[in-house]
Amino acid sequence: MKRVALAWLAAVSPLAASPKLDFALGILAGERGDHEAAAAAMEKAREADPGAYPLVARVAGQRMAAGDVEGASTLYREFATGSPERMDAQLAYADFLRDASPDDDFAAKLAVETLEKAAGKFPGHLPIQQRLFRTYESLGQRDRSLGIFESVMEAPSGRAGVMEAVAMSRTLFPKDDLKARERVDTLLKDSCARMPQDAVLARTASEHFRTTGRLPEAVEMLSRHVKAMPSSLEMRRQLGVLQLMAGQETEGEATLLEVVDIDINEARAHTTLAKLYRKHGRAAEARQHAAQALKSRGGSVSDFTALADEFLDADLPREARLLLEKAMFYHPDDAATAVKLAVASRRDPESRSQSSLLFREAEGLSGEKGPATDPVFLTEFAECLLESGQTKAAEDRLRTAIRTYPPDRKKETAAALRRLAGIWEGEKRNEEAAKALLQRAKSLDPG
């Protein structure tokens, strides 16, 4: 198809020739891998329309790829000198000089001359000021770069100008220069007051004050933005975090609770709230927010199972089950998660009747030596088996659980011993063995 299209275009009469046609021929030739024909077609298109910057850039790139740096430089120079009224032409030539010969003082000198001429035609234009500043700095001309900084500070062009002034200040002045810092303080405060709805500006101002150890001012910058833009949820969350950092715990908690009320899946807000509540011993609230964070963003197997254990220890099997069901979504083949889910499902009255299948699935995922050898899992599974009349299978799992419980789990071991003895007593068999189990259980747990 491409070959046919190329042949058709090539057959078009010379009267219909145009830069666009040559450009198309060049693209098709390039896709065919015929780089020589592509270069020729692009060069022809550029000659027909020398003021088309995309063609200039493409042909210059071809010359650079062929190692002809001088040819590419000539192309950009002719483009710039032939279009003195076009700022893009001047910037393109200056950028080429800097990028192609970053360590060449002569190239830097040419770039400066080009940019200074452009600055005369386009006074106060930020892209030119940015390039002049970097070039002066690279040449060690600090007095000139300071002049550029002052001109940007005097009349910053919107957010971009403010951001550039801040960046220039970091380059020019040491961190402990309080006078320079005060000027940036004023610039950012005034700019945020004029443009409170600008999130990027608010974040920049807040970070400036935060990183210089002035948290109240950092909070103020974000507060002003959130008030102006109530829908700015990420910044509202960041405000809550900053309030906590500044010791404003009541305000920070309220802000973060607003965030999760608006978006229940804002995981970072939930995580921060969970940490706050753990710090103050509010375990129940911490668990709920930690669970929602995991459900929203996911986490490691250990993150899920450790929190599920907290719910189970607090006798909240339903919460543990819901958390572990989400964990299986993130880790569908993980045996440890499946084992915990089976236990939580059996303990939760809402899901107890369906838990038998989960125990089987967990054993299948685990294998003989996997997490399904956990004694808690085995004792819970044994109860499930007994309910369905599978006494022998239940006995086997209880025996394994009794052997598996660590020495410090005496109460749990005693419970398993009593349960096994109770099975035998109920069926009037192994009576002597049952008595022995009960004696052993009593020695472990007299109560």
TrEMBL record:
InterPro entries from the UniProt entry: CellSynth/LPSAsmb/PSIAsmb, TPR-like_helical_dom_sf
Region annotation Disordered: where it falls in the sequence: 352-371
The protein's name: Tetratricopeptide repeat protein
PANTHER family tied to this protein: LIPOPOLYSACCHARIDE ASSEMBLY PROTEIN B, TPR REPEAT-CONTAINING PROTEIN PA4667
Origin species: Luteolibacter flavescens
Signal sequence annotation: 1-17
ATP-binding among keywords: no
Coiled coil: none
Keywords tagged on the record: Repeat, Signal, TPR repeat
